[in-house]
């Protein structure tokens, strides 16, 4: 029997597309050649959510929104990735408020209408049996810039849709290029934490995302509060380590109030080091990250997504001769060694080959690998990596039959 029947439409969406028997990117078990399934293609369960492999699409800003709303571009962009089988997709940083955007063209989720528009993207991804989350962020003093494909260091003027940026302290990220931000008041800081919680609630209850990630890296607002290089406050949100990390923990607490945290995974991206050790001793270091990780785990965070830098132009170069020598490998390994089985660790940066990605998991550097630019270059990266490891994975029915035709 062919399996052809009237019950062949994918669920969730209100238009016809074939139902996928299993999510694309799932390793055949057993493998036709008898090989053991590599760790990259083992499933991973976090709370009530199961990812069918451990290869994720890293959040990458697309600068393709008007007034924070997604467009058909987002449906095509994320939909095409979902068809090709990553274990998880993390949607680009969505601003929790208008002034939280990096550029005027950033995605937002500060109102219900934006969340409802995102549901169309989520529904398609779910119709393919895939998992999708969203990164929630606030750009702080690095906001109100122009999209980087126009200029890497240009401020968006008010007539171009720009705005007054805010931060823990009135310190410009780039003196002479970006204006100094306005220092946030105590009541405004508390409101920001509440807005993060409200954005998480919209993400889950209206959009239908499977999980959320807090953006606390790359010199954006939470990172600015955490670091002494950008936070010169003397009140409850500055000075000591506990004070500087108060906001990020408040954000976690607000999210816990607003979503079913016992069932829904919570990720956080951190700059594990600001890469300033040689020029500024006050910069955030790996020791600070491990100290914060203990608090985040107790607060309910499941996955620590390890990145670095972004809070100072004086940071050291992250470029290394090979990925295995990359600074992020060292940082992820140190975080994983510290947290052990108390939390999962995601690695991101520069992965191009399956063998290197597999080795990071096998060596317990990380539990998940996230890929950004190489998914842009090759949306079929999951299938290519399976080929490199000499294993078979499922693919969308519309694609796979041309490679592995059914019997006549």
TrEMBL record:
GO molecular function, one term: FMN binding
InterPro entries membership: Aldolase_TIM (IPR013785), OxRdtase_FMN_N (IPR001155), YqjM-like (IPR044152)
One family name in Pfam for this protein: Oxidored_FMN
Keywords recorded for this protein, A-Z: Flavoprotein, FMN, NADP, Oxidoreductase
Residues in NADH:flavin oxidoreductase/NADH oxidase N-terminal domain copies: 39-386
Oxidoreductase as UniProt keyword: yes
UniProt keyword NADP present: yes
Cofactor: FMN
PANTHER family membership: NADPH DEHYDROGENASE C23G7.10C-RELATED
Protein name from the UniProt record: NADH:flavin oxidoreductase/NADH oxidase N-terminal domain-containing protein
Organism: Pachysolen tannophilus NRRL Y-2460
